[in-house]
Design a protein that fits this description.
134 residues, mainly alpha, 7 helices, 63% helix, DUF8082, DUF8082 domain-containing protein
Amino acid sequence: MNPLAWPDGLRGEMALPFSAWRVLDLIDGVRDAAEVARLAGLSAPELQRQLHEAQQWVARAQDQHRPLTAEVAQTITACLTQVVGPVAELMVDDVLEDLGDTAVMGSLVAGLAAELTPEQMGRFAQQLRARGLA
């Protein structure tokens, strides 16, 4: 019997979909995969899929806190340019100026999102996903 463990990097305060937490709450470091699957009402392959998805959510959450490099800022600017045009560079510069030394990828995206309409935000998010940033 090999007890299951949470995905690396997962913390209890991370925002994950309910379906992920429904399974992760059953992982206690004692139960094995078969027991967790049984308690969750899942097949073994479905449990593995849920754990894989949880790991992907954790990776995305960790990405939001990674330091903002010039390359990432440039990619975010390119994504935003696809949505709002050349004014994107000014928008990014303004948000970066407001953030100062505390800039991380997530805070830049959040600052930009506050200036976009819901339609623009949807298109911006789509651009970020296409480049693996969301």
